[in-house]
Amino acid sequence: MNFFEHQDRARRNTSRLVFLFSLAVAGIIVALYAASRIVLRYAAGTSTGPFMHEWWNPRDFAIIAVCGILFIGLASLTKMQALRGGGSAVAEMLGGRRVSSTTEDPAEKRFLNVVEEMAIASGVPVPAVYLLENEEGINAFAAGHTPNDAAVAVTRGALRHLKRDELQGVIGHEFSHILNGDMRLNVRLIGILFGIFALGILGRILLRVGGGPRRGGSKRGAPVVAIAGLLLLLIGYIGTIVGRLIQAAVSREREHLADSSSVQFTRNPSGLAGALKKIGGLTDGSRIRSPHAEQASHLFFSPGRGMGFLTAAFATHPPLVERIRKLDSSFDGVFPPVEEEPAIGREERPAKRARGLEDLLGPVILGGALAVEPKKILDRVGDPNVNDPALGAALLGLIPEEIRSRAATPEGAARAILALLFDSTDDAREKQIEILEKDLPRGEVDSIVRMHEELRGLDPRARLPLVDLAAPALRDLEPIERQKLLVRLDALVNADAGVTLFEFALRQVIAHRLLRASRPVDRIRFRSFGPVLKDVGVLLGALARAGSGGDADAARAAFASGVSRIEDLAKTSLPFRPEEPTDFAALEKALDRLAEASFAVREKTVDAAVHVALADRAVTIEEAELIRAFSASLDCPIPPFPPESLTG
Predict the structure, then answer these.
(1) Residues 6 or more apart in contact with residue 353 via CB below 8 angstroms
(2) The pLDDT of residue 50 is above 50
(3) CB neighbours of 391 closer than 8 A, spacing ≥ 6?
(4) Reduced to 3 states, what is the DSSP secondary structure of residue 30?
(5) Are strands 151-155 and 618-619 parallel, antiparallel or unpaired?
(6) Of 58, 240, 266, 290, which has the most beta carbons under 10 Å away?
(7) For residue 167, which of 208, 111, 95, 212 has the smallest C-alpha distance?
(8) pLDDT at 314 (0 to 100)
(9) Which of the four pLDDT bands, split at 50, 70 and 90, describes residue 346?
(10) In this structure, what are the phi and psi dihedrals at residue 135, rounded to the nearest 5 degrees?
(11) Which residues contact 212 (CB under 8 A, 6 or more apart)?
(12) Residue 330: partners with Cβ closer than 8 Å, 6 or more residues away
C-alpha cells in the first residue's frame, strides 16, 4: 500500500467512524428513553403499577431523541472546534508544554534534534514539539489535521529512560501516523467521541447536585435528580465502553503498521523493541495521568490507561509482548529493570556528520544530470522505506547553525523565508528591496538583506529543509502577520520576470503551509479529473518549459510525455505554447485547486509531472528539488534523495 492508498484508506476509515458513531448514538437514545421512563415513574409515584404501562410513547421518544442528538452533537462540535488548532491544541489539552528551540535541557535538545532529522528526511514541515512534563510513564503521540499543523509530544518519562535510538524508534512510529494520514482521523475521533463521554460528565454533575444539601433542609426533588444523574452516569459508562470499542476498531491495525514503518524508517528494530521493553519494565509503564487521557487513548504510542477486565477486548493497541516479538523473536517475555538514561543534546551529532556529507548526499552537481526512472521518484512519496534520519541530519548540517537558530523564532523565520526568495541578479534584487522598503522599516529590510547574503552560498538541497525547519516558528506568527508575509512573498515573486520557477514553487510551498496551518480543514472538492484537467495542463506546461532550456521541440515532447500518463487528459486537446512565458497567477490557482483534489487524482498528477521533468530520463538537482517543491504544495511529500539512490 503506497502513500496515496494510505490517505484514501484513512478517509474511508472516517466514514466507518461516522457509521459506528451513528450506531452508538442510536443505542444511547434508546437507553436515554428507557432511563426517562424510570425517572418519570419514580417522580409520579407509580413505580408499583404495571411496568409496561405507557412504556411506549412516540412523542416522548421523539423529544428524547432530539434532545439527546442535540446534546451529543453540540458536545462533539464544541470539542472539534476547540481542536481546530491542530496538534498543538491536542498537546495542550493533555498538559503538554511547547519545547523551545533555545532550551538548555540536554534531553529536550536531543528530542528536538530527532524530530527535526525525521521531518527533514520525510520531506514534511517540522512539527511543533511538546513535552508532557508531569507524565512519568513512557509514551508519545502525534496529532494534527495535516502535516502543516502537526505536533509530536513525548512524556518526561520517555526522555528520562530512553536512549537516543529508542527515542528515535518511538518518534519514527509517530511519523508513520503523520505520513499515513492517521492523525486527521485520530483528532476527529477525539471530537466525535466527546459527545458520548459528555453524558457521563453530565451524570456526575446531576448526581452531585441531587445528593447535595438543599436550602432550608428541603430535599424535595433531589432523589429524582440523583436517580437521573445515576442513570446518565451508567449510560455514560456504557458510552465510554462503546467509545473504546470504536477507538479499538480504527486503531489497532494502524499501530502494527506504525511499528513496521518505524523500523523501516530508522533501520533499527532494536531501538523500537528496546523502548517497548522499557515500558514493560517501568513501574509507571506507559500510564498517562491526564484526565483527558481516556478520550485520547487511541493517540498514544502505548495505551495510556486500561479498562480493567475489558482491557484485552477493547485495547486500542496490540499486546505489548506481541509487539516486541514482531521486532525481536528471541524475547522471552521477561522485562529488564529500567534505569534513567543520561542525555546529551546537539553536541552528540557532529561525529556522525564528520563521516562526510558527500557520503550521504553526493556532491553538488548543478547543471549535471543523473539517469533515473520516473517510477523511482513516485515511489518515494511518503514512503518510510526511503527515509533516512541520517540523511535528514546531513541536510540540516548544510544549514549554518546561526541561520538555524534565527529561523527558530517567528521574526527570524519570516526573514529567512523572504531572503530565500531574493533574486540572484543585482537589478532584480534592488527592485525587491525597494518593494520591501515601502512596507518595512529600513532596519528590518537590512536584516533581510544580510540574511540573503548569508544564504547565497547555501546548497540548493538545503532550501526546502530550511523552509521545513522554519515551519513551527512561522505557525507562531499572528494571523495578521501571516497574511502580511504572504503579501510580501507575492510582491517579491512578482517584482519582475527574473524569478525562477523553483523560486515560485518555493513561495507556493510556504504559502500552502501557512494557509493550511491557519485553516486546517482538509477537504476534498474534486474526486475526478474532469474539473481539474485545465489545472493539470497548466502545471505540466510550466514544468515542460522549465526543463527544456528554451528548446520548443523538447518542451512539446516533455509536455506530451506527461499528458500521456492521464487518460482523461490525453483525450483532450489542451493548448500548449512553449514559447509563451509561464503564467504564475494561473499556476498558483491551478496548484491551489489540485491541493483540494482526491489523492487518487493527485497521485496521477504527480506521476505526470515527474514524467514531464524526466522526459529525457535525467534529473538535475534543480529539477529534483522543483519536483519536491510542487509535490509538497499538494501535500504529497517526496523525501530528499541522495543521487545514488536514483541511479540504475
Answers:
(1) 393, 394, 397
(2) no
(3) 120, 121, 360, 361, 639, 640, 642
(4) helix
(5) unpaired
(6) 266
(7) 111
(8) 64
(9) very low
(10) -100, 115
(11) 222
(12) none
Total residues belonging to the chain: 648
| Closest-CA residue to 422 (of 506, 361, 364, 366) | 506
Grid cell, residue 499, equals: 524569478
Reference 300, options 281, 275, 264; nearest CA is 275
| Cα 585 to Cα 504: distance, rounded to the nearest angstrom | 10
SS3 566: coil
> Per residue in 359-417, pLDDT tens?
555 544 444 555 567 777 777 787 766 667 788 888 888 898 889 989 999 999 999 99
pLDDT in tens, 480-518: 998 899 889 888 888 876 677 888 888 888 888 877 666
Spatial distance between the Cα atoms of 528 and 597, rounded to a whole number of angstroms = 8
Told to judge if 174 belongs to the known catalytic residues of this protein, a careful annotator would answer: yes
Residue 533 has what pLDDT?
92
pLDDT tens figures, 325-341 = 989 999 988 998 888 87
Q: Which of 117, 166, 174, 623 is flagged as catalytic?
A: 174
Name the nearest CA neighbour of 391 among 319, 448, 340, 464.
Answer: 464
* CA atoms of 365 and 348, how far apart (whole Å): 30
Are residues 389 and 118 in contact, defined by beta-carbon separation less than 8 angstroms?
A: yes
Query: Could you tell me if 244 and 198 are in contact, meaning their C-beta atoms sit under 8 angstroms apart?
Result: no
Write down the residue that cell numbers 499501530 correspond to: 255
- Angle between helical axes of 320-327 and 222-266 (0-180°, round to 10): 10
- Give strand pairing partners of 597: 526
The number of helices, as runs of H, and strands, as runs of E, in the chain is 27, 6
| Side chain identity at residue 527, one-letter code | R
Helix (H, G, I), strand (E, B) or coil at 212: coil
Which pTM does this prediction carry? 0.84
β-sheet bridge partners, residue 370? 619
The three cell numbers of residue 593 are 485547486
pLDDT-based confidence at residue 95 (cuts at 50, 70, 90): very high
Higher local confidence (pLDDT), 264 or 481: 481
Q: What angle do CA 5, 8, 13 make, to 5 degrees?
A: 120
- With CA atoms as reference, report the closest residue to 432 among 489, 376, 387: 489
Among 301-310, 324-333, 428-437, 454-463, the range scoring the smallest mean pLDDT is 301-310
Contact 295, 194 (CB under 8 A): yes
Buried b (16+ CB within 10 A) or exposed e, 283-302: ebbbbbebebbbbbbbbbbb
576, 621 Cβ separation under 8 angstroms = no
Q: 152, 140 in Cβ contact below 8 A?
A: yes
**What confidence category does residue 538 fall into, taking pLDDT thresholds of 50, 70 and 90?**
very high
Please name which of 273, 169, 318 lies closest in space to residue 154, comparing C-alpha atoms: 169
Helix (H, G, I), strand (E, B) or coil at 325: helix
Alpha-carbon dihedral of residues 452, 458, 463, 468, nearest 10 degrees? Answer: -90
Say which DSSP state 100 is in: P
Answer yes or no: is pLDDT of 113 > 90: yes
If one compares 307 and 577, the residue with the highest pLDDT of the two is 577
